Amino acid sequence: MSTNWTHPLERQTVNQAFISYLVPSVLGMLVIAFNFIIDGIMVGHKLGSTAMAGIGIASPVYTLFVAMSLWIGMGGATLYSNHMGRKEHKKAKEVFTKSIILIALITMAIGYTAYTFKDKLVYTLGANADTFPFAADYMNIMLLFGFVFTIENALSVFVRNDGGPNTSMYAQITFAVANIVINYITLYVLEWGVRGVALGTIVSAALALLVLFSHFFKKSNNLTFTRFTWSTKLLWMIALIGFPSFLAELGMSVFSVSHNISMERIEGTDGVASFTVLNYIHGVVLMAFLGLASAAQPLISYYHGAQRVKRVQETIRIAVKTALTCGLVLLLIVQVGASYFVQIFGNFSNSVTDSAVYGLRIFTIAYVFMGVNFVMSTYFQSIGNAKMAIWITAAREMIIMIALIAILPSFLGVTGVWLAVPLSEMLVLITIALYYRKRSLTERLNLLQAK
């Protein structure tokens, strides 16, 4: 790195910086999301709804590994950007080294341990006799080789925060394109079934990892490995700051498992299949919101470390307005095109199609609130307010959602299942508004007392 090097965030206005991160972040995430959509279309047309349900049941394992990678990756990258904002380059490199080594060790330990009781795990996740073979084939590959995409996922966050959002996007595009090609070969040429889909994910992640390695050869690169030394304090800081990201992804596992179990009880295998279709579509929206939050995170972390308060506030205003606009547009699109979106995944029975369309039209109300909640959680995480970030994430994806999905179906049937997430997102946004109102009143009282 040149001694005259200046971070891009110092050279750009907030609008310019946000757009420079927003475009590659959202595009990269959407490419990944559409990759999963195409996966779903391939599986649905080639293997049918039962195979789709099996993958849906096993998907929490994939989500757990992503959660682990984001826990350490986001925690480490946020701390990394804070140090870079303070010009503490040596500390930033120490954070990077410890984060990458830690995520590799943790995910390998979890995967190999879970593999020893893999069959029990599949049934615990909600499989029945029909879906077990498909769920087991997918999950076993993930447990054995999932550490590859956890390292790739964590490194992608660091590369983005190190001023390489485009490189991160190229890696995501590489993953998506490779995954589509490999899945076509394994499904239609080799006919390896669900096992081939899982292998495609691992191989594609390895190729994306090679793209990310190119960042290390750039003059602007600050990501260099240092000698690993154990530091409980530093590892605790990484874990604490990144914990909301872990909860967010783990919440997706809770979301999938709770909805799979509820739909299986109410509508059987057809219900699980209809939710799996919804989950594929929902995944696109989640990735878009994640891309939006990911664009804001490096800016907030860096500006906070550099004590540029006005720039932090401006970043939040831009991100919240963008999230709200996107949420309303997405709601309108899905309301109008729900039937079309469901039919893309295959020629399902009327019960599966009708259930998925009905669920989509109710469920997508959540998008009006969800994007704003994503942004606010990222804001609190980026400034080190882990307590509030954890509350937002845990409440919207676990505490409130689980309570609603446990209670509402007793009164509303399947409608209660679809309403759980929209109501949860709305209630969490209300708590954020109340938090800000209380903080504003406290600040005014402090000013009056100071006078």
From TrEMBL:
Organism equals Paenibacillus amylolyticus
User: Organism's domain of life?
Assistant: Bacteria
Transmembrane stretches, by residue range?
A: 18-38, 50-74, 95-115, 135-158, 170-190, 196-213, 234-257, 277-303, 324-346, 358-376, 388-411, 417-436
Instruction: Family membership, please give it.
Output: Belongs to the multi antimicrobial extrusion (MATE) (TC 2.A.66.1) family. MepA subfamily.
Q: How does this protein lie in the membrane?
A: Multi-pass membrane protein
- Listed GO CC annotations: plasma membrane
What NCBIfam families does the record tag this protein with?
Answer: matE (TIGR00797)
Record-linked Pfam families: MatE (PF01554)
Q: What is this protein called?
A: Multidrug export protein MepA
Kindly give the InterPro entries that the UniProt entry links to this protein: MATE_fam, MATE_MepA-like, MATE_MepA_subfamily, MdtK-like
Q: Where in the cell is it found?
A: Cell membrane
Gene Ontology molecular function = antiporter activity; xenobiotic transmembrane transporter activity
Q: By its UniProt entry, which CDD domains does this protein fall under?
A: MATE_MepA_like (cd13143)
Read off the PANTHER family from this record.
SPORULATION PROTEIN YKVU
Keywords for the protein's UniProt record, in alphabetical order = Antibiotic resistance, Cell membrane, Membrane, Transmembrane, Transmembrane helix, Transport
What GO biological process terms are annotated to this protein in UniProt?
response to antibiotic
